[in-house]
Write a structure and sequence with these properties.
It contains 21 helices and eight strands. By secondary structure, it is of the alpha/beta class. It has two domains: 55-265, 3-Layer(aba) Sandwich (Rossmann fold); 331-554, no CATH class. It has an eight-stranded mixed β-sheet, sandwiched between helices. β7 (203-211), α7 (216-229) and β8 form a beta-alpha-beta unit.
Length: 575
């Protein structure tokens, strides 16, 4: 046993034991099939065969529907161990027949570990019946020790699981006995399997059945030509004549299958010949890993790139959302409606400059509020501004979610992911979270507190303390908040004058108190703090999408590990 090679194969197998292709990226069906076939051959053949190089040979009898595989196996072992018949598919559960001396090897899960065993077949050991997805084990004294025959499902079965199982069994074979008929030997499906056998150097014998006497020579010659053209000219070819059997369960006469039985018997007793078969098939399977594994690694890279693209379009959607919020801060739309009305209440509708410069108006507003219970104008303005900012955040989050969902729906992988996540997830993801309003409200209030702290801190300078105190922290804070948003962009008609006055007056007043450079610094700090809080909200919203991708698919280094493992197998591949 090549210990280094076995270790390299086990390492390779570990890297395949993940969901490498979770989404519909590229030809994902072919990718998953390639992964399943590679993992299956490692489990079913390469690892057990390399661990027990002298174990009995497994000859898998495969072919097309109605080729007579079951009848052939029954005839070779001299007992009805399989169930031939006119209904298709006939072979629902594969049947393995071996000499009693080899039963322990095949009843264990050393090979084909994924197939549960059923023993005790009618006519052989008394009574068992296999179900689809199981491996029926029978023993027959007539079959020589050292060799087992496995009757596989049809490679062109109308049942997809049967076709997949047939391919799995053929990949687990030391020797493939390909059974065809004089009328179907040129069919394309069998030849696709034969080409695969050639590519992987699988030991192969051809059994041509139901050959009319008058057509024996031309049919055999034509099949020989096809085998030679496909690089299989060295494969032994046996012919079985067309015979009239008394029933569908009847076996072929001994003389009809004697050449095949004799060849198999010689193979089983000749240790050198048996070792040659094992070496040919095992070496071919190992060599095929040099191309199959890197090709699988390329497909893994494609899957990872597709998942990264899904993440990128979500990032782009929410980056665009942040840009939309920035535009909302610049375009002046927040100065419309309620904010404008509360601004007018705040500054008064009479002599604008006098009401701002005089403390009388400020005291009058608060005395009136105390007796009437109506909030002070600066508080009403702050509340209106808070509501406007919350609305902007909500619109931003809704727009980003809608763009992200639309982007995913435009991609097969995105549609696949949404479907896997549940049919209602699209509608839910296409809007902001249900608790976004409360989170936005809390963020805006915290931002307003931050702005008040900025004003309070700046107002402690001894040069500005008296001027700041004459207006109060709350009033100055509201004006600084307005300065973050004040602009005439997007505002028309009479609103231009009002908004323009709002912007100019707020700025001039703040500059008169703090100085123009300080006002620019305060405004920038207030704007960046609000952006940071909104960015955090949008990041949380984005995570509803990205969390669906977290941990999905292969790790970043999976393809590199696969290529390294394949290289290690090739370096240690000498048998």
């Amino acid at each position: 046993m090549n210990v280094g090679l076995l270790a390299a194969l086990k390492t390779l197998r570990q890297h395949l034991d993940h969901d490498l292709f979770p989404l519909a990226i590229g030809d994902v069906a072919a990718d998953r099939r390639a992964l399943k076939e590679l993992s299956g051959q490692l489990d079913d053949y390469l690892l057990p065969r390399l661990a027990a190089i002298d174990a009995p040979l497994l000859a898998v009898v495969g072919g097309s529907t109605g080729a007579g595989k079951s009848t052939l196996v029954n005839s070779l072992v001299g007992a009805n161990v399989t169930e031939p018949g006119v209904l298709r598919p006939t072979t629902l559960a594969p049947t393995l027949v071996c000499n009693p001396a080899d039963a322990a090897w095949f009843t264990s899960t050393s090979i084909l570990p994924g197939l549960p065993r059923v023993t005790g077949l009618p006519g052989i050991t008394g009574g068992g019946r296999g179900e689809p997805g199981t491996l029926r084990i029978a023993t027959a004294d007539r079959l020589p020790a050292g060799l087992a025959l496995l009757d596989a499902p049809d490679i062109d079965s109308i049942v997809s699981t049967n076709r997949e199982l047939a391919a799995q069994l053929l990949a687990a074979a030391d020797l493939w006995l390909f059974v065809t008929t004089a009328s179907r030997y040129a069919d394309e499906v069998p030849w696709s399997f034969l080409r695969l056998a050639r590519e992987r150097s699988t030991a192969l014998a051809i059994i041509l059945q139901r050959v009319p006497a008058e057509a024996c020579e031309p049919v055999t010659a034509d099949l020989t030509r096809l085998l030679r053209e496909h690089g299989l000219g060295d494969a032994p070819l046996f012919t079985v004549p067309e015979l009239e059997l008394p029933s569908e369960h009847a076996r072929l006469p001994a003389h009809a299958v004697q050449p095949i039985a004799t060849w198999l018997a010689r193979l089983s007793v000749d240790a050198r010949a048996r070792a040659a078969v094992v070496r040919q098939t095992l070496s071919g399977a190992l060599d095929s890993l040099g191309t199959r594994v890197p090709a699988l690694a390329d497909r893994v890279d494609r899957q990872r790139a597709g998942i990264a693209e899904l993440r990128a379009v979500v990032e782009k959607a929410y980056d665009s959302g942040m840009s939309a919020f920035d535009e909302g801060m610049r375009d002046g739309l927040l100065l419309r409606g309620e904010v404008l009305a509360r601004w007018q209440d705040f500054i008064g509708t009479g002599d604008l400059m006098r009401s701002l410069e005089s403390r009388i108006g400020w005291l009058r507003d608060r005395i009136t509020a105390a007796f009437t219970g109506r909030p002070a104008p600066d508080k009403e303005l702050r509340v209106a501004l808070e509501s406007g900012v919350e609305t902007l955040i909500r619109a931003t989050a809704d727009g980003a979610a809608e763009r992200a969902v639309e982007s995913w729906l435009a991609m097969p992988a995105g549609r696949d992911l949404l479907e896997q996540s549940g049919v209602t997830v699209t509608g839910r993801l296409g809007r902001a979270s249900s608790d976004l309003s409360s989170r936005a409200s809390a963020a805006v209030r915290e931002w307003q507190g931050y702005v008040l702290d900025l004003v309070r801190s700046e107002g402690t300078d001894r040069r500005t303390v008296a001027r700041a105190a004459s207006f109060g922290v709350n009033s100055l804070g509201v004006m600084l908040m307005l300065a973050v948003f004040a602009s005439t962009g997007g505002i028309t008609g009479i609103e231009i004058g009002i908004a323009g006055g709002t912007s100019l007056l707020s700025q001039k007043l703040l500059e008169a108190i703090f100085g123009d450079q300080a006002v620019r610094t305060l405004t920038q700090s207030a704007r960046e703090d609000l952006r940071r809080r909104v960015r955090e909200i949008l990041d949380d919203e984005r995570s509803r999408f990205t969390s669906l991708l977290d941990g999905l698919g292969p790790a970043d280094d999976t393809s590199a590990h696969l290529r390294d493992a394949a290289k290690a197998v090739q370096e240690r591949g000498a048998l």
